[in-house]
Each structure stands twice: as C-alpha cells, then as structure tokens.
Design brief:
The chain has about 110 residues and is mostly beta strands. The chain has one domain. A five-stranded antiparallel β-sheet has the order 1-2-3-4-5, covered by helices on one side.
C-alpha cells in the first residue's frame, strides 16, 4: 500500500467502508495501539476501529463520510510531543482506598 509522512511518522494509507459510512485514514505503528471509545448510539465501535486496535495502529488522520457523502467525522493529530512521563502519574493518589463489593457479580 501507499504511505505518507505525518509529523515525522511513517503512516500507511487506508480506505474503509461499512454499511453507512466510508472514509480515508493515515495510520502509524510507531506510536503503539490506539483505543477508540465505544459509541453507545451506534452499538459500539465500527469494524474498522476494531481492526485498527487489533493491528496496533495509531490514527494520525481519519476522515469519515456518511452515505450521502457529507463529512461526518475528522480525527487529526496536529501536534505530538514525545516525552517521558513520571511514574507517579500512574499510581493511586494519596488517600486512595480500594472499595470492594464481593457480591456484586450476583446483582442482576
């Protein structure tokens, strides 16, 4: 397939289509996998979004059109700063205490 550079990252070009939408994306594997949030109105992630997560791609540009050809969604990375994050950003805050509800699995 074709590729392009976006903000210094080599990106593969993709076209996607499902029953209601079609689109174009530039994605890189140089940044790790991206996790889309599920859309409760449409019943979860689109198939192309699931494939991106499974293949380890990070979308740098996504343009999605509806069945009428109108632009529906645009994701675009406009700035990216590579940096080391402090380990304390990934630890529980002071005063945190675990709240456990052992019988919660029985609630229906």
């Amino acid at each position: 397939g074709k590729s392009q550079d976006v903000l210094g990252y080599s990106c593969d070009e993709f076209e996607f289509k499902d029953q209601n939408n079609k689109g174009f994306a530039l994605m890189t594997k140089e940044l790790g996998s991206f996790m889309f949030m599920d859309d409760p109105e449409s019943g979860g992630s689109a198939e192309w979004q699931k494939e991106i997560m499974n293949e380890g791609y990070f979308p740098m540009l996504v343009k999605e059109e509806n069945s009428s050809g109108e632009l529906k969604t645009v994701f675009k990375v406009v700035d990216l700063k590579k940096m080391k994050l402090d380990d304390n950003m990934f630890s529980a805050p002071p005063g945190y205490s675990k709240f456990d509800m052992p019988n919660m699995q029985d609630v229906k």
